[in-house]
Amino acid sequence: MSMLADLPPGLSGIEQLRTLLASGRQPPIHETLDIALVSVEDGIVAVEARPGDRHLNPAGVVQGGYVATVLDTACGCAVHSALRPGVVYSTLELKVAYHRPVTSRTGLVRAEGRLLSLGKRAAFSEAKLTDSDGKLLASATSTLILMPLEI
Prior knowledge:
Elements: H1 13-23, H2 28-33, E1 35-41, E2 44-49, H3 64-80, E3 87-98, E4 109-118, E5 122-130, E6 136-148
Antiparallel strand pairs: 1-2, 2-4, 3-6, 4-5, 5-6
């Protein structure tokens, strides 16, 4: 299921994201993990998430894959916001650094993604995850491949 297939053709990446944001629609993975795209600018996005007990590993800390998914979402959406019509992306590489533990008591977290560079075949972005007090919890850099949209 491609959410992009439901949008009018010819929209740029930022237009696609803004249309989805205005409609309140989120990808199914966002609903499953309690993640939401909350703001979109050219090359800059914000994603919020609410880690809970269902995201904990056996040690009582939010599983690193959950944190990585939030950061990957922010990195990918930052790139998506700069795409021309008919182009999509996929993550090639994601490097995550965990600065502080995230628990179910951390509350709402925010990942801000930023486009670093956009070429014809690849893009590079970064994201930082912070808690409600602005403390850095994790950060990531990402390399993404760009390709034609095939719906």
